[in-house]
Fold these 3 entries.
Entry 1:
Amino acid sequence: MREASNAMDDVSTSDQELIDQCLAGQTDAFGELVTRYESRLYGTLVHILGSVQEARDATQEAFVLAFRKLKTFRQESAFYSWLFRIAYNAAVSQHRRRQPPTASVDVLREQSGSEPVDDRPESDPAYALHLSERQALVSKALDELGEEFRTVIILREMEGLSYEEIAELVACPVGTVRSRIHRARSELREKLTRALASER
């Protein structure tokens, strides 16, 4: 609900200003929105879908649909939330149609570029290897979760969405979202505990 005139903390053009410019015929303004959010959207979809190609396709489709539907955007939520809802719906439909084999953990980590990295001790090869292995374990554990649990935990932990936003996105009650996130965390903890124990 932030109006463009109130975006004093944002040096660059606000989302709403870019949307207004685009609706006024300056379609290049939409390219700035794509630049602003493409990587973030793609990275999240890779984790939700478990497929680099599906995530790429869904991201492209989302921006095409968003451009076509831009006049329907209301400032009741942030542009990214609106865009993500479009992308999520497109991704779910696409995933159900195709359901390809899950990409390997290594491919996901290398191509998504969205794994959290602690750069403080990055000069230590041993630490980098350890971190890479831990990320692989987390990605593998996420891949093994049921789709409904994987989706909500990613939206909560990676996207930082509220329970209410997630509930609206996946079309289920807030209580169900809380329950799924709790179960997803428990399952992840169990899977990671087992995985770490087997390495010893």
Entry 2:
Amino acid sequence: MFQNKTILICQCAERGLVNVDSASSCVAPEEAVIIPDLCRVAAEKNPILGKEFSEIHACHPRAVRALFDFAGHPLPDSVKVHNHRNPKIQPSKNPSLQSDPAWYPVIDYDRCTSCGQCHEFCLFGVYSTTEDGKVVVANPASCKNNCPACARICPETAIIFPKVGESPINGAEITDETERQANLKINVDEILGNDVYAALNARKVKRQSLMNQKKLDQALAERRKCSSSEKRIF
């Protein structure tokens, strides 16, 4: 499926946000590596992203670069990223999906200050911190489908959900810092209220409780599995 070429085209197969015809018309088919969905491929840490691409035809450049960084293959500045996201297509939402391999956050480290607010806010253990304090997306599969709330309250708008419709958290370029800060204040007030630190602390306690319950459920499931195996033996 993958060829050793230097031009990559993402079809955004999961939610169809990219104008594939526009992207494909830019290069001859034999010149391109075509992948169904860049977000999914990045989540799978597919080695195809380690190739030396000269051009990438996908969506917002900021989102694309963050996805490659997340996959462990940061893009050199020389790589040209072409945005073929179709503004007329609204992101689809399927409430029947409990999880979506292509729905998760990535981080724009040019903006991130590793304040850890996303880590404290998320109830599902998506984020973690390294020994040197860097915030990372450690468990992308744990992200709640269609929820970009952590991105809305990020002080630097460094968190990107490539498949969301809302700019600039979908990776669109930030051109007006004053407008960004005004929208951030509205989001923080709506989501966290007046006392941000108290709200984050309460969510931290709730997250720990949920994580403990998850571990308990996993232990019980493993115990039942072992019990079933023992019964089959005898």
Entry 3:
Amino acid sequence: MEKLNTLKLILSIFALININILCAQVGIGTTTPTETLDVNGNVKFSGAIMPNNVAGIVGQILLSNGPNVPPVWGAEYLNPTQTTKMGKFYSGPFNLPNGYFILTLTDANCVPTSVCSVTWPGNLPNLGANNGYGNITLTVEAQTGQWLFHFTNLTGYSFGNFEFAYFAHY
């Protein structure tokens, strides 16, 4: 009977150790890991990052799928060696008067060869039957450290809380 109890005790300890190993969190540089592998510090590796055993191809960027879901490789960027920096920005609301107006936005990354595209985050104001949409034009000028957005508003109206989004390539 004593041998049976000893065997049960050994098996119980073995089971607890295995459960602990299966649920363990390993910390490097931390004594309180919060993930399966928790590294407090820099990580250096020489191989590929391979979510779901997929290495991706040249020009792809790894995209998050949110918490507890493996990331995936996104669409391939064209000419990755030619594009060094890019970003999406919002102008914030401003008043667009009737006539000619320049909006200057500071951007430390902007250089004279930078380019951007502009989109309106909604519909332009309803201006009646002839709507006047063609009466608002925009040209963009890149300078060192800033963008100049040149508006020509020939609608006959001034607009408050006007805003836009722009995607810049540096």
